[in-house]
Design goal:
about 190 residues; Heat Shock Protein 90; six-stranded antiparallel beta sheet; 4 helices; 6 strands; about 25% helix
């Protein structure tokens, strides 16, 4: 979605010593973005990841194709959302997906996102999640994890040829006590 440009006008009179604000402890800021921004992390994940999947379909002209959502259960304790969009190329993974505030969605009002935060919502619930993405005949399997730096890292676990169509699947481990909450909040987030 197009975001309003709310830059402040700033004027100075003469030469003054100026210093820019910065971030001393990136781990602390990332922890705030992960753990303090959402009052309901399960709802945030269900909403944000499903919106990203729908936006991926809009990006490639597949608005009428449904995304796939797999609810966690005892045999597969994972929440999975799969789309059939463009996939996430290695360049897009580096330049957009793992960058807070980076977004490809600011040029139109058709896509839902634009702040560059939603893809990271799984970290509000879990210290790790997986991304499997197919791009032009190559399947990339990534692991995202929070380590001792508290910043978060992405590791390319494997890369192999595939005949599967382009698209991305986000896979989040879920605690058994939360299975029903993922079902409830998915229904609520995707109802309309």
């Amino acid at each position: 979605m197009k975001l309003a440009d709310n830059r402040s006008l700033y004027e100075t009179s003469g030469d003054m010593e100026e210093k820019f604000f910065s971030i001393k402890d990136q781990g602390m800021i990332f922890e705030i973005l992960r753990n303090k921004m959402y009052s309901n992390s399960i709802l945030a994940i269900c909403r944000e990841i499903s919106c990203n999947a729908r936006d991926a379909h809009r990006e490639v002209g597949k608005s009428d194709v449904p995304i796939h959502i797999y609810l966690p259960n005892n045999l597969e304790p994972y929440y999975k959302i799969k789309d059939f969009g463009p996939g996430i190329s290695p360049a897009r993974m580096t330049d957009v997906f793992i960058q807070y505030t980076a977004s490809t969605k600011r040029s139109d009002n058709v896509q839902t996102g634009g702040f560059g935060l939603g893809a990271k919502t799984p970290f509000s619930y879990s210290d790790s999640f997986s991304i499997v993405t197919n791009v032009d005949g190559i399947k990339y399997n990534y692991g995202a994890a929070i380590d001792e730096t508290r910043v978060g890292k992405l590791a390319l676990l494997s890369q192999s040829p595939t005949s599967d169509p382009n698209g991305t699947e986000i896979i989040i481990p879920v605690k058994p006590n939360d299975f029903k909450f993922f079902a409830e909040w998915t229904e609520s987030s995707t109802r309309h």
